[in-house]
Predict the 3D structure of the following.
Amino acid sequence: MWSVVMAVLYRDTRVLKRRMYAMISLYIIPIIFSLAIVYAPAAVTSPSQVLQRFRLLTNLPIENLSELLALMLYFSSIISITAIGTSTAYWVAEDDVHEVLYSVLKYTTLSRYVLAELAVAPLQAVISTIYLVPATIPLIGVVKSVIMYLTYLPIAVVAMSVLMIYGYTIGLLIVRLLRTSEVWIVSNWLLPLILLASGIYIPLSLIPAVLRYFAYTTPVPYIMEIAKLVLVFRSLSTQVPIVLFTFIATIYVIATTYLARSCEYVLKREGILCLRRM
Amino acid sequence: MMDPAIVVDKVVKRYVVKSGVFRRRTSVVEALKGISFTVDRGEVHALLGPNGAGKTTTVKILATLLLPDSGDAYILGHSVTKEADTVRKLVGVVLDVSRGFYPYLTGYENLMFYALLRGLSRREAKARVREVLELVGLRDAANRSYLSYSMGMRARLSIAKVLIDDPEVLLLDEPTLGLDVHSARFVRSLILDLAKRGKTILVTGHNMFEIEQIASKITVINRGQVVASDSPQSLREKIGLVHRVEINVHALERSDVEPLLTAISSRLKLEKSSVETIAENQYRIVLYVAGSREYISSNVFDVLRTYGIKVLDVKIIEPTLEDLYLALVR
Ligand SMILES: Nc1ncnc2c1ncn2[C@@H]1O[C@H](COP(=O)(O)OP(=O)(O)OP(=O)(O)O)[C@@H](O)[C@H]1O
Ligand SMILES: [Mg+2]
């Protein structure tokens, strides 16, 4: 297993190095979106009103708008993590499975290969959130920015890992059921639905029940909840989201392993995994 | 006597093809109908057959990438179905020379990925990758992206990938497909080189000239069944393809040659014969004979000895592998 991790890390760092520009543009887009969301209430009403409301609602000792904005930036970074994490759903359809799977299967199984991909989660997490440091320096100063980021980083890494696993599960499920490599047909629906029902934009209680239940099958609402506890209340005053999150994560690890095995079996039985274009 | 390197034992493979998302239709392709053959250690063994005969299917089963429906195959005594993990360590397989690589990574990086995957440490991997790149003559192109490689370079890289493991048994599915004369020759000499070092090689292909130069044994399959499996020489004898025999003699007159031809035809069963004049006082007797080389040569020389005629040259021309192949898969 260790060798698979090493190989995957080597490959991904090489690919990342080469595709830096593409990656940056991929990561920047969600950030721009998220900035718009952060400033929207202040733009519609007025900055002081937003701050007032926020204090009233949360009963939190937030002194100024800058601090509030920093916080909001952090919450919206969950959007980037979700976008990038779940994009692993496409991986199954990429060059990878088509071009190199046979060669890879000489050394390992598909399920190990998929799980090894998680080795890059910390790297992905840093790349997709590091902008938070320079973005919050003008708001809360260097020291606070760095401390806040370091507090948040473990959450980001865990969130990225679980979202990646979630993405693989969905991707493998689509491949296994539909036997198509065009995973995007289904997985493109995923991100907007998750984000809509994640509690980031709209409070969960205002979301239609169907969407809400769907959201609860994804890791995002729990991540949101944990981030809230750590960043706003500075403590994990309740263990419930952590327990639920661990539960969900375990289920997805099992599901991915099972689906990967099933896909590998189909490949060895029928000679082709994806036999359809849609 | 050592075990053979590869044993294929009554392997059956049916592909079940499903089509339609909602209304499932299934059709069955019988790719292998119980094939058996063996490959000895250190041998270059060619697996031949027309398109769709089941060659790639056989190679995939031997490489544990495909499960047979029944029957089994053994690599150095290990079952491909029951000891797949062991078998994977013993074989190296080249399936489609233009697949199996990340297009945006360089040749070097692609091989590093596989070397690490195999479990080599970074240092070992670097050394090994350099070594195999050198071996296949890709050192200068090592740091160019795979995307920019020509077909020949891709084929070389595929072979380099297999060599990283230094496997005992190599399975090469059409390794020279689409290569120019020079590259194909290079790949052939590489194959012979590996065989000299004791590796067992099963190679498929369609170029008979090429196979003739490297293979010491051939198995011909057609529509999922083995048609023949033997050395090219014994296949020729078994199938009884005709040899062309040319005897150039010095004689004063054409009529001096005729009795010789009569004498030969009294001992050998000739399919056809003729006498040509090639120069003044030089004649060529051409015979078409079915039978082994020994049978032909001993009889021809016996006759030539008893006649006091001056022989300039004797040639026994073998039927080509192509003739043989065509006779088999007719
Ligand atoms: N995954 C698959 N699903 C269904 N049928 C398949 C599959 N792979 C191969 N076949 C069929 O099985 C038969 C044998 O195919 P195979 O690829 O082994 O032939 P081959 O001898 O390698 O031919 P070629 O010389 O063209 O490479 C063919 O009829 C082919 O159409
Ligand atoms: Mg083939």
Remarks:
- The mean pLDDT of chain A is 83.
